[in-house]
């Protein structure tokens, strides 16, 4: 079912595996004051901290959780803005989602996220997602892998309870690369009231095109790397209702009143091999289809194409971040 809008005023090649939460403490402008990160609460929202928080040089904080949603202990990096500990301000939050064959460390270790966000008054949350396509799978043979449950119903309210955030629509953005770009588009549509800005960096936006090719990729990659032979969307028979619920191109009305940013590579001026052709070629086609649907619906968006293949472009992220900061509530 399509969500009803509620108006509110590397160069690393990777396989393209690339409203319970808002009731949390302080959600939607609640009066509770979130504790400082130094006193972060471990228990609650179905999460328990299982390793001591680790401060990577001041801004970057690491947490590992036990949760019934995931059969192992996923981790999260939380990047705080300069001056967080002394400012007393509340801040907007960006949920930044990694691609397939990556993990919560991707943007810190390989994409220079600390420097890319220097001087920006925003909290950046970078969670583990396995190769699970930001979904609760149809089947798994290795224990629970409910990544959507973990992110949207556990982690998001935990962040709002433990950091000084704006726990409301205009206080959150979601963005991602590759599989994470799909996850960002999916979460922004399925959880319409959670994010005012959504960005997909080389992420697919259409699951059914070309004979459900992206659904097949999701099933195959998750079966091999994540689910011990299980699948995200079912096989040999697809769960069509689940595909429709997750498919950005089928959720166009859910992008009204949001800032939408899309970028994909054209494969020009890049070493073209099967990896890039399979990944970015399908991404580009799907994003073009998605952009056309947004335009037909009269939904403003930024849709960019750049030379090259399947990679996270730092200059595009900076442009995206500028746009996010203009849309999100300002720290204060």
Count the DSSP helices: 9
Strand proportion, as a percent range, falls in 15-25%
Number of domains: 1
Please write the string of helix (H) and strand (E) elements: EEEHEHHEHEHEHHEHEH
Shape: globular
Secondary structure: helix percent: 25-40%
Uncertain regions spanning at least 5 consecutive residues: 1-35
Query: CATH homologous superfamily, by name?
Result: Alpha/Beta hydrolase fold, catalytic domain
CATH architecture: 3-Layer(aba) Sandwich
Major β-sheet annotation: 9 strands, mixed
Compact summary:
The chain is of the alpha/beta class and 332 residues long.
Mind sketching the topology for me?
Blueprint: E1 47-56, E2 60-67, E3 75-79, H1 84-87, E4 93-97, H2 106-109, H3 113-116, E5 123-127, H4 147-162, E6 172-177, H5 179-190, E7 197-201, H6 209-225, H7 240-246, E8 259-265, H8 274-296, E9 302-306, H9 314-327
Parallel strand pairs: 4-5, 4-6, 6-7, 7-8, 8-9
Antiparallel strand pairs: 1-2, 2-3, 3-5
Protein architecture, described:
With about 325 residues, the protein is α/β, with parallel strands linked by helices. The protein has one domain (about 35-325): 3-Layer(aba) Sandwich (Rossmann fold). It has helices spanning about 85, 105-110, 115, 145-160, 180-190, 210-225, 240-245, 275-295, 315-325; strands at about 45-55, 60-65, 75-80, 95, 125, 170-175, 195-200, 260-265, 300-305. It has a 9-stranded mixed sheet with strand order 1-2-3-5-4-6-7-8-9, sandwiched between helices. The longest helix is centred in the C-terminal third of the chain and has 23 residues, at about 275-295. It starts with about 45 loop residues before the first strand and ends in a 5-residue tail after the last helix. It catalyses: an acyl-CoA + a 1,2-diacyl-sn-glycerol = a triacyl-sn-glycerol + CoA; 2 alpha,alpha'-trehalose 6-mycolate = alpha,alpha'-trehalose 6,6'-bismycolate + alpha,alpha-trehalose. It holds the Pfam family Esterase. Its EC number is 2.3.1.122, 2.3.1.20.
């Amino acid at each position: 079912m399509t969500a009803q809008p509620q108006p509110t005023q590397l160069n690393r090649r990777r396989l393209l595996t690339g409203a319970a939460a808002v009731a949390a403490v302080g959600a939607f402008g609640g009066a509770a004051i979130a504790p400082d990160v130094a006193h972060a609460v471990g228990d609650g929202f179905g999460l328990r901290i299982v390793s001591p928080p680790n401060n990577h040089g001041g801004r970057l904080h690491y947490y590992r959780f036990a949760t019934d949603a995931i059969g192992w202990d996923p981790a999260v990096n939380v990047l705080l803005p300069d001056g967080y500990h002394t400012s007393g301000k509340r801040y907007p939050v960006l949920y930044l989602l990694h691609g397939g064959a990556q993990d919560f460390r991707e943007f810190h270790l390989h994409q220079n996220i600390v420097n890319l966000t220097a001087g920006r008054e925003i909290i950046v949350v970078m969670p583990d997602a396995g190769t699970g396509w930001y979904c609760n799978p149809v089947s798994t043979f290795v224990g629970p892998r409910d990544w959507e449950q973990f992110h949207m119903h556990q982690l998001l309210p935990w962040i709002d309870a433990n950091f000084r955030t704006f726990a409301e629509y205009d206080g959150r953005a979601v963005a991602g690369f590759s599989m994470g770009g799909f996850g960002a588009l999916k979460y922004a549509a399925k959880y319409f009231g959670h994010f005012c800005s959504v960005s997909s960096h080389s992420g697919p936006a259409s699951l059914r095109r070309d004979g459900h090719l992206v659904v097949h990729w999701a099933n195959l990659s998750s079966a091999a790397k994540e689910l011990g032979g299980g699948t995200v969307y079912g096989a040999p028979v697809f769960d069509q209702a689940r595909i429709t619920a997750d498919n950005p191109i089928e959720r166009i009305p859910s992008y009204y009143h949001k800032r939408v940013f899309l970028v994909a590579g054209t494969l020009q001026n890049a070493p073209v091999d099967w990896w890039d052709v399979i990944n970015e070629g399908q991404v580009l086609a799907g994003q073009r289809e998605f952009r056309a649907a947004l335009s037909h619906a009269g939904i403003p968006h930024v849709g960019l194409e750049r030379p090259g293949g399947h990679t996270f472009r730092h200059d595009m992220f900076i442009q995206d971040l500028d746009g996010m900061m203009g849309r999100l509530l300002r720290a204060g």
